[in-house]
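thread: overnight batch results

M.L. [08:02]
morning all. the overnight job finished for the chain we discussed friday. pasting input first so we're all looking at the same thing
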Amino acid sequence: MLTHRPREPLTLGDTTFRFMTAAADEALATARSLAGDADVRIGGGPTTARQFLGARLVDRIHTVAVPVVLGRGTSLWEGLEGLERSYDIEAASTPSGATHVIWTRRTSEERQRP
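M.L. [08:03]
and the structure it wrote out:
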């Protein structure tokens, strides 16, 4: 987990959370080495997600848009113009009004598509 200050690891059940202050690529390399063959998942707010997306380190992202008053919060997409050209995008709305959007990175051949 990326953090602003050093912390000792925290173990909950079978999961150990390790905290570090690092760039996105360094944090991902550390997580991959610790995960072995398991998936690495990134959690956090828009600022953290934007770091990983901007560095093109994300293979799949699941976002949820919830209807709120516009103008509040931090934009996930700021500075990531054109990102959608590298991903296939699926969206589904729920009765509550939330919209789930799943972005899956295209292979290099697929990226040639518009």
